[in-house]
Design a protein that fits this description.
170 residues; alpha+beta; HIT family, subunit A; five-stranded antiparallel beta sheet; 32% helix; globular
Length: 170
Amino acid sequence: MAARGVGRGLIAWASGLLPRRPQPRLQLQRWASSLGGPDDEVSKAKQADRARRICGTQSPTIFSKIIDRTIPADIIYEDEKCLAFWDVNPQAPLHFLVIPKTPIPRISYVTEDDTELLGHLLVTASQLAKKEGLDEGYRLVINDGKLGAQSVYHLHIHVIGGRQMNWPPG
């Protein structure tokens, strides 16, 4: 079953009402399809948290593998501090991620030393949203920890738009 609201966006996208976005390379599509649907995000977050606690250290994440080009992604922006790419499991017609190149596991782990980097991530997200035509608005999401449904322990900002967002989000 499609996530709430995604079906209409996909129909508009497929019918040509919205611009077509680059498709992820086959390897990344296979990886994403093995994870399950959007309803599985909570169980993925619980598994990721459990694995992180068992290992006791931060192992390489899919995002660090995208940064080092071990795993392909449809990158839309890169500079010395961050990388942005299309989400493989979009929750709206436009859905991309902005990640720092410096691995920070959770937003709750940031320090005052990260102030400049966090500002840079938000400014980058805003500029890319404008570039992608999200002039009517969009949503920024940062999931934190198991209860926040964080499934990848590398700080990332979801930029989601191209349709009306609902409230409350949870």
